[in-house]
Amino acid sequence: MIDFVKTVVGALEANCYVIWDTDTMEGAVIDPGGDVEDIAEIVEEKGITVKYILLTHAHFDHTHGAGELEEKYNAPIAISPEESFLIHDDLGLLMYYGDEKYIPVEPKIDLHDGDVLDLGNSKIEVIATPGHSKGGVCFGTDAGVFCGDTIFAGSVGRCDLPGGSMQELVESAAKQILTMKDDVVLHPGHGPDTTVGRERMSNPYLAGL
Ligand SMILES: [Zn+2]
Known about the structure:
The protein has 209 residues and is α/β, with parallel strands linked by helices. It contains seven helices and 14 strands. It has helices spanning 36-46, 60-63, 66-73, 84-89, 94-97, 166-177, 196-202; strands at residues 2-9, 14-21, 26-30, 49-54, 77-79, 109-110, 116-119, 122-128, 137-141, 144-148, 151-152, 155-156, 185-188, 194-195. The chain is globular and about 45 Å long. Bound molecules: zinc ion (ZN). Zinc ion (ZN) binds at residues 57, 59, 132, 149, 157. Zinc ion binds next to loops.
């Protein structure tokens, strides 16, 4: 079984999730966008062995602390290969973020739709959801779906950045998320949790799908 703690990180207040398998305490950090000390405190307090650093997509508000964590825990960074062009360019925004401790993000694991990662006795399913960005993915677990900037409570991620497409995002949501049961919990990359059923009923961007 997966359990998790959410912590809000970085200047753009992204949700970082520290998740772990409750049998083995093997864990993963999803979207460490900054505030590495806060993330490390959770990892150490819970006694988690970090196996992976998982990135839903490459935008710096979700990835900024990934290099530092990789070095700290010697855990590989995993992301879709379709996002690497953004990691290396960092949207040109890094210069505005000003962080001397920044360690460049060097992915070690390529994620593809349908991949399953083992985390102790639990599984993490990779669900491709292009739209907010070209290689965006969600992570499906028995504790819900960590969905990055694909869907927010009552909204969806912006699609005007490089590689974004509203049509693709809506198609991804329809095919990959709204096909799940109503009571599946969604853990977005910003803001509060929601459920598949609530978004199906009330999300204006997903109306009529
Ligand atoms: Zn984003």
